[in-house]
Amino acid sequence: MQANGHRKYKKRYSLRQKTRIATNLSLIPTLLILTATFVIPFIYSFYISLRDYNPLEHTNKFVLFDNYVKIFSDVSFLQAIGRNVIYVVLVVSVNFVLGLVMALVINTRFKGSNFLSGILILPMILMPAAAAVLWRFIYDQTFGIVNHVLELFGIASRSWLASGSTALYAVILTDIWAWTPWMFLVLLAGLKSLPIESIEAARIDGASEWSLFRYITLPLMMPAILIALTLKTIDTFKAFDYLWIMTGGGPGKASHIISTYIYKTAFQLLDFGYSASMAVVSLLILMVFSLIYMFFIRKQEAMR
Amino acid sequence: MKKNIRTIPMKLLLAILIILLLAWTLLPFYSLIITSLSPAGELPTKLFEVSKNLTFKFYKEVLIEPGTTLWDNMFNSVIVASLVTIIVLISAVFGGYSFSRSNFPESRGLFFLLLIIRMVPGILMVIPIFIIASKLHLMDTILGLVLAHIPFNIPLAIWLMKGFFDVVPRELEEAAFIDGATMPRTIFSVILPLVMPGVAVTAVFVFLYSYLDYLFALTLSRVNIITLPIKIAGFMTAHRIDFQAMAASAIVGTIPMILMFIFIRRYIVAGLTFGAVKE
């Protein structure tokens, strides 16, 4: 009886079908958890963005796309987008150059290079909130080490975070300091995976260090570089912690980027409807960014 | 090869670069450490100026003296991060297994969802989560913060676990299936023991991300669940600046992270580049 049932069972499901059932069943916990914690709030945020929802003014009604229309006349938000672009371009490009220099230096494999790379990743280990308060202190007019260093070059001390013209750039420098290790690690992994033979062959043929780098190392690393830049751009675009802790968007509104401006609108002015619509717009911008990068990555792959 | 690099100008350039990189990386840490040890009113006002009365007073303040210690905050952070880690691991073990073993359309659909989560800005989610948490009375509770942290950790965790499952040969569970073992049984008693080191590494990653979070903790905590990052950021407000205690807390709060980083050293790059994959 039992043997019979077992044979029937085997007939009905092939190994492939069994695997399919098993793998799909194992997706269930993830699906349930993500539906509750992600999908519902995610869809809800679109719903809020279509409403005029402000507990402070006791409004809560459906306004369709009014919030989105309002964005185009909100100069402060458009400026925040502009600053966000500056933030991303500066952080990603300087991160990339510094990270590449670090990776090339470590990859020459001198005595102690392992130890040095351990030191270079230290900024990443400091928690972002701690790095932000530390740098707030570092920019202090009297006690800050930035001013102490500049004094050596005869530059008068100033309060870098209190001035509208320097606050944004001061925060950008902090972000660069804190996240260059990430770029360094990813690029170093890319460098280490290069085929040493082709580089050696070119070196024996008498190529200079620069042309080796320019015509062999760099092109071979291109896929790793593109991926690193894509991820870094997406993450930097979402930056919040450093700016919020160091300037709070100030002085005035001089250093707001997208996330801090939305946060202020949502949690200080309690204008949830409008802030949700700005957040949706920021997601759209991010997706356009990613599509452009994806296009370049595909093109790169097609060439190989 | 080595000889070729080591010409004198190259060596010199290398040495200069190393010094500059060290200065750039370490000067802020130098400032942090000196600050944490300086007595009140004796902070350095010049480069490499150090007070003669260095003191551990502020470490005592954040570690021992009742009322000003960080332990409550540390406790909150650790509880939240641990719960997040447990729930995310349940999802990641099953999900990672599934992604490793199947290329059926069902899992491709979910993979797309994971990429979306990887891209969505926290600021987009924090608004609906705040409103939902207020309505469900989850504000300022551990459960609320745990639920908020979960989705952002799942893509990375599943991705890491998939990598660890990929190295386990398929024949193992196919043999178990043919012998009539059920799916959970196969996963738990045949495969899971083989990927235990991977589970540990994934757990550390998830724990770290939850431990570090500032945005959600800032939004959802009021008095009961002030986590460590919120506490540390709070040392510097417009009204009150407490440099030394801030520096001492930052150092104390970072020590657990250094330990965890050493543990996951070999996997850092794999963990940081999630989303970089062509399917």
Tags for this entry?
heterodimer; A: 304 residues; mainly alpha; MetI-like fold; globular; disordered N terminus; B: 279 residues; 2 domains
Q: How would you summarize the topology of this molecule?
A:
The complex is a heterodimer of chains A (304) and B (279).
Chain A: H1 2-12, H2 15-25, H3 28-49, E1 51-54, E2 59-62, H4 66-71, H5 75-107, H6 113-120, H7 122-125, H8 128-138, H9 145-152, H10 167-192, H11 196-204, H12 209-237, H13 241-246, H14 258-267, H15 272-303
Antiparallel strand pairs in A: 1-2
Chain B: H1 2-5, H2 8-37, H3 57-63, H4 71-101, H5 105-119, H6 122-135, H7 142-166, H8 171-178, H9 183-191, H10 196-212, H11 215-220, H12 228-234, H13 243-264, H14 268-272
Helix pairs in contact in B: 2-13, 3-13, 4-7, 4-10, 5-7, 7-10, 8-9, 10-13, 12-13
Helix proportion of residues of chain A, in percent? over 70%
CATH architecture assignment name of chain A: Orthogonal Bundle
Q: Strand percentage of chain A, roughly? A: under 5%
Total DSSP helices of chain B: 14
The ordered H/E elements of chain A are HHHEEHHHHHHHHHHHH
What is the residue-averaged pLDDT of chain A? 87
Architecture overview:
The complex is a heterodimer of chains A (304) and B (279). Chain A has one domain (68-303): Orthogonal Bundle (MetI-like fold), CATH 1.10.3720.10. Chain A starts with a helix and ends with a helix. Chain A has helices spanning 2-12, 15-25, 28-49, 66-71, 75-107, 113-120, 122-125, 128-138, 145-152, 167-192, 196-204, 209-237, 241-246, 258-267, 272-303; strands spanning 51-54, 59-62. In chain A, strand 1 and strand 2 (59-62) form a beta hairpin. With 304 residues, chain A is an all-alpha fold. In chain A, strands 1-2 form a two-stranded antiparallel ribbon. In chain A, helix 5 runs antiparallel to helix 12 and helix 14 packs antiparallel against helix 15. Chain A contains 15 helices and 2 strands. Chain B is mainly alpha-helical and 279 residues long. Chain B folds into 2 domains: 2-55, no CATH class; 71-272, MetI-like (MetI-like fold, Orthogonal Bundle), CATH 1.10.3720.10. Chain B contains 14 helices and no strands. Chain B has helices spanning 2-5, 8-37, 57-63, 71-101, 105-119, 122-135, 142-166, 171-178, 183-191, 196-212, 215-220, 228-234, 243-264, 268-272. Chain B is globular and about 75 Å long. Chain B starts with a helix and ends in a 7-residue tail after the last helix. The mean pLDDT of chain B is 84. At the A-B interface, helix 2, helix 3, helix 5, helix 6 and helix 7 of A face helix 2, helix 4, helix 5, helix 6 and helix 7 of B.
